[in-house]
């Protein structure tokens, strides 16, 4: 049986990749942010997960406003990161895991999730920045990745409760996979931020910290919010919390917090990282 060993939450701001490329991790602006990651990298290097299931949102690279699936999953053997409009540097492709991907996709459809299943798929900074953060130097090619994309850009968007249910269904699917592999779950994006309009720059630190607490101890409390409430509380892009909520839904056993860090602002965003250890539920 596949074993979900733990989970990580992280921001996926594109400026992070630029800071790493320009060796700015120890500058006064970036150091409090990057200081949160060594314990997570150490854990990943010790545990050596075979597969990462990574919840993220596409920012218009693969899915533009004319075609926007609510939920999508990649089932390819490889994923490439393309230019998102600012001349992004070429980075190594991301290794996929097609067998487990197809198992999850089939299980999700059987459980009532009408997924968009992508046999070819470009991935953007929402997926590649977290991988580069965990394996600096873009040294992530050894780990297989299953991308799960949630619409956080164009209304109507899935509500927090539905994203939590998606995570639960993915956790169930992984548990039923008859291979002895270890899996880690990544929830990316957020926390509170708004990048445009009259409220641009809003950050709700108190709410961000409360979300991090609830994600560990009472995740279902976060499913009581609507997307509109998240926007009102923390800004338009706070709906990216839904990727964290989906991640937490996949952890159906005992969860223990190992590490956390929160820093704001980073690129007008409240940025948090959590490392959670997971014990599989008993049969």
Automatic annotation (TrEMBL):
The keyword Repeat does not apply. Residues 7-269 form the Extradiol ring-cleavage dioxygenase class III enzyme subunit B domain. It holds the Pfam family LigB. InterPro entries: Xdiol_dOase_suB. Gene3D superfamilies: LigB-like. One of its GO terms (molecular function) is ferrous iron binding. Its EC number is 1.13.11.8. Keywords: Dioxygenase, Oxidoreductase. It is an enzyme of class 1 (oxidoreductase). NCBIfam families: PRK13364.1, PRK13365.1, PRK13366.1. This is Protocatechuate 4,5-dioxygenase beta chain. It comes from Marinomonas spartinae. The lineage of its organism: Bacteria, Pseudomonadati, Pseudomonadota, Gammaproteobacteria, Oceanospirillales.
């Amino acid at each position: 049986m596949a074993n979900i060993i733990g989970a990580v939450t992280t921001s996926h701001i594109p400026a992070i990749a630029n800071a790493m490329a320009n060796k700015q991790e120890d500058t006064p602006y970036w150091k409090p942010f990057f200081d949160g990651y060594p314990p997570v990298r150490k854990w990943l290097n010790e545990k050596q997960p075979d597969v990462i299931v990574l919840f993220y949102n596409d920012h218009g690279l693969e899915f533009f406003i004319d075609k926007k699936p609510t939920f999508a999953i990649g089932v390819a053997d490889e994923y490439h990161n393309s230019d998102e409009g600012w001349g992004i540097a070429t980075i190594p492709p991301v290794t996929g895991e097609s067998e487990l991907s197809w198992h999850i996709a089939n299980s999700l459809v059987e459980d009532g999730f009408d997924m968009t299943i992508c046999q070819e798929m470009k991935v953007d900074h929402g997926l590649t920045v977290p991988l580069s953060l965990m394996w600096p130097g873009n040294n992530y090619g050894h780990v297989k990745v299953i991308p799960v994309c949630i619409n956080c850009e164009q209304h109507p968007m899935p509500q927090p409760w539905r994203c939590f249910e998606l995570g639960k269904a993915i956790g169930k699917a992984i548990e039923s996979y008859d291979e002895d592999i270890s899996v880690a779950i990544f929830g990316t994006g957020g926390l509170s931020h708004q990048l445009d309009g009259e409220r641009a720059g809003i950050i709700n630190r108190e709410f961000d910290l409360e979300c991090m607490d609830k994600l560990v101890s009472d995740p279902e409390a976060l499913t009581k919010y609507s997307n509109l409430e998240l926007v009102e509380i923390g800004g338009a892009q706070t709906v990216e919390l839904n990727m964290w909520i989906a991640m937490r839904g996949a952890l159906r056993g005992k969860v223990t917090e190992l590490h956390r860090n929160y820093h704001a602002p980073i690129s007008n965003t409240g940025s948090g990282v959590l490392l959670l250890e997971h014990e599989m539920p008993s049969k």
